[in-house]
Amino acid sequence: MALLLSFPPEAFRPAASTNFPQYVFPMAGGGYTSALAFDPAVSEKCESLQFAMPTFTAPLTLRISFAIAATTGGVDFRAQVQAIASGDAININTSTSFDTANSSGTVSVPATTYNPKDFTITLTNNDSVVAGERVTFTLDRNVAAAGDDAAGDCFVLQVDLEDAS
User: Fold this and answer.
1) How many domains, in total, are found in the chain?
2) Which end of the chain, N or C, is less surrounded by CB atoms within 10 Å?
């Protein structure tokens, strides 16, 4: 997988009409300066800043780096993609066109407290994105999923958009 774009926690904003994960700055130590803290009991969603989609080779994936205090259980995240091109039939003032959510499935947490770990979400449902379109994606912890049973906040440290090249 090749890196296309990298998104630090500062590149996310609240998604409309939802709870936003807590923005943590600065982190107490280590190699990360900030994080998004997703609660284990409350549905929280954030949205990336809009960007111009670069040329890519399918499939697209999000690589998410996280850390958590829990040493047992799992987390489950979802991502949705919205791609808008000139001439699309969408009123950007009143509506969105996010595709169906893509899920990470259950991701086991690291065996050691706060050790960073990566997982990926394949963006199969990607709103038929092509290079040059204006793209936004959302990220949320799927607290309703049976496999999301790790206690405590899950700290998202970095999100990278990758392709198959």
Assistant:
1) 1
2) C
pLDDT band at 31 (very low <50, low <70, confident <90, very high): confident
Instruction: Show the CA angle centred on residue 112, arms to residues 108 and 114, nearest 5°.
Output: 90
Predicted confidence (pLDDT) per residue in 89-98, tens digit: 888 778 888 9
- Domain with 96, as residue range(s), is 2-163
User: Average pLDDT of the chain?
Assistant: 93
Question: What is the SS3 string spanning the chain?
Answer: CEEEEEECHHHEEECCCCECCEEECCCCCCCCCCEEEECCCCCEEEEECCEECCCCCCCCEEEEEEEECCCCCEECEEEEEEEECCCCCCCCCCCCCCCCCEECCCEECCCCCCCCEEEEEECCCCCCCCCCCEEEEEEEECCCCCCCCCCCCEEEEEEEEEECC
